[in-house]
Each structure stands twice: as C-alpha cells, then as structure tokens.
C-alpha cells in the first residue's frame, strides 16, 4: 500500500525566501537521486494563518513502507536532513500514513 510522508518546516526567520526555496529544491532533487524509491514530491509555501508558524512543507509518496524505510536510511536523505534542513529550521513535523483507495478511515 502506498505511503504519504508529510513534512512541515518552520524556517528560521533569518533565511530569505530564496534560501527557503533552495531547501525545497534539495528535497525535490531526492526523487532523482533515489529512482524507484520516491514516487512523487509536492512542495509548497504556506499561505494560511492557522499553520502555527510552519512556513513551508512537502509531501512525498512512496510505493510502500519498505520504500519509505529505504529513503529514510539513504545517505542522500541523511545528507539533506543534516546539511540542508536541520541547520535552517526552528522546528519540523513529520506525519506518515498509508494511502487508502478512499479518504475516510476504516470503520
């Protein structure tokens, strides 16, 4: 079953919007560096006031949990997290879930 990996970032206020976009570009590039692991990447900048300070985010879709685990342990992912993301954020939220063929929870 496919898995969605959602990350919300609270970018440091000292970063320019260009620098923040560079972070998202590094994340998007992981799809190319890990062919067959990441199925899709969606990136964006928050526009709503209700985001509790989270300014940027992305969603990745993986074929299954094993693909997410491969991604999580890959040197490319670890490098982006440690060198690009963590030094430039105040906080991060990660949320992973299996994608069902429908949008409501199983009853």
TrEMBL record:
Gene3D superfamilies: 3.30.70.100. Pfam families: Dabb. It comes from the Eukaryota. InterPro entries: Dabb (IPR013097), Dimeric_a/b-barrel (IPR011008), HS1/DABB1-like (IPR044662). Residues 3-97 form the Stress-response A/B barrel domain. PROSITE patterns: S_R_A_B_BARREL. PANTHER family: PTHR33178, STRESS-RESPONSE A_B BARREL DOMAIN-CONTAINING PROTEIN. Homodimer. This is Stress-response A/B barrel domain-containing protein. It comes from Linnemannia schmuckeri.
């Amino acid at each position: 079953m496919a898995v969605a990996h959602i990350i919300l970032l609270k970018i440091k206020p000292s970063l320019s919007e260009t620098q923040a976009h560079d972070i998202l570009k590094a994340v998007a590039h992981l799809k190319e560096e890990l062919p067959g692991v990441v199925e899709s990447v969606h990136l964006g900048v928050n526009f709503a006031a209700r985001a509790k300070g989270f300014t940027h985010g992305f969603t990745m879709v993986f074929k299954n949990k094993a693909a997410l685990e491969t991604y999580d342990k890959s040197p490319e992912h670890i490098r982006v997290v440690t060198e690009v993301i963590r030094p430039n954020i105040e906080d991060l939220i990660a949320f992973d879930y299996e994608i069902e063929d429908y949008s409501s929870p199983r009853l």
